[in-house]
Design brief:
globular; 47% helix; 323 residues; six-stranded mixed beta sheet
Length: 323
């Protein structure tokens, strides 16, 4: 029995990362995605003795379990969203209000948790693009089964026959669901943005200039790197801004917490991302927020600063104490 359990675990464990990635796109939360993938592997381990590889590949069997776990978790859940989905843009100087419960937000996720470390470079680029906050938020507009179909077909590039087998339905039903899902995403619109490209000198220079301006608290230089209609959001608050002028006024305000802070790169959501650190009285630096940037056409179109840093540190691991 012990040998059977060990053998099952050794065959199942290599799928963990891709399963978490699939569940993250379905659920919009790294914490929930980890739980869903763990539940998937636990169910698979318990029933491994009944698995028949003649009926389905091991990967298809695991994704069927994962899909059912996610559908169960989504049955009574509200749609996770970005600040732009929760209300109109605020004016600079308005009160940011009270924090919104965690369950309302699409949450950030570490790249290493959801992206396999190797594989085809082109497929890897697609997977990085499809864990951007904006894309995951757009997915949340789809009914759960349509969401599963679109992820399997357009992100993971499964054949229609494979998806039909997984969902125990027909190819025609899968094709119809995919068409409806694509139409919904087109209507919703995905905020433009590039995944992080460390080998791209233009993107690297833009991010270097942004970090330098931020750390100098040079608001004029920083705002010059933004698109005219750039947005700034600060989950868990629903308050958000649109436009360089409004962002400039907020950054120049007397209460801004950015002066004296530092930015340290972190791998999150396949995007340019940084821990925002603030100095403590003991000389150590503590995380104040997790910053994700949307970059497009050589400028920054969106700044999302997750202020619940203490809750995110266990998921991402602690940033350096002395940047």
């Amino acid at each position: 029995m012990a040998e059977t359990s060990t053998g099952a675990e050794s065959r199942l464990e290599p799928f963990r990362t891709e399963l978490i990635g699939y569940c993250y796109r379905m659920l919009g939360s790294g914490f929930e995605a980890e739980d869903a993938a763990q539940e998937t592997l636990l169910r698979a381990w318990r029933s491994f003795g009944r698995y028949d590889e003649r009926r389905a590949s091991l990967r298809t069997w695991l994704y069927r379990i994962a899909t059912n776990v996610c559908l169960d978790m989504l049955r009574s859940a509200q749609r996770r969203a970005l600040a732009m989905d929760l209300g109109r843009a605020a004016d600079a100087g308005t009160d940011i209000g009270e924090p919104v419960p965690e369950r309302a937000w699409v949450q950030p996720v570490p790249d290493g948790l959801v992206l396999p470390p190797d594989g085809d470079p082109e497929a890897a680029a697609v997977r990085r693009e499809t864990i951007r906050l904006a894309f995951v938020a757009a997915l949340q507009h789809l009914p759960p089964r349509q969401r599963a179909v679109l992820i399997l077909r357009d992100v993971l590039v499964w054949k229609a026959e494979e998806v039909a087998q997984l969902l125990e339905t027909t190819v025609a039903s899968v094709t119809s669901a995919l068409q409806r899902a694509r139409a919904t995403l087109k209507a919703v619109g995905v905020v433009p943005g590039e995944p992080l490209r460390p080998s791209d000198p233009a993107q690297r220079e833009l991010l270097t200039r942004y970090c330098a301006a931020f750390e100098r608290h040079d608001v004029t230089a920083l705002v010059a790197l933004l698109h005219e209609d750039a947005t700034m959001t600060m989950p868990p608050f629903a308050w958000w801004l649109r436009g360089r002028d409004r962002i400039r006024r907020v950054l120049l305000g007397p209460e801004t917490p950015c002066a004296g802070a530092r930015l340290v790169p972190v791998a999150a959501n396949g995007s340019p991302a940084f821990w925002q650190l603030r100095p403590g009285p003991d000389g150590a630096w503590t995380p104040f927020g997790l910053v994700l940037l949307d970059v497009s056409d050589g400028l920054i179109g969106g700044i999302t600063t997750h202020l619940d840093a203490d809750r995110l540190v266990p998921l991402f691991g602690p940033p350096p104490r002395r940047p």
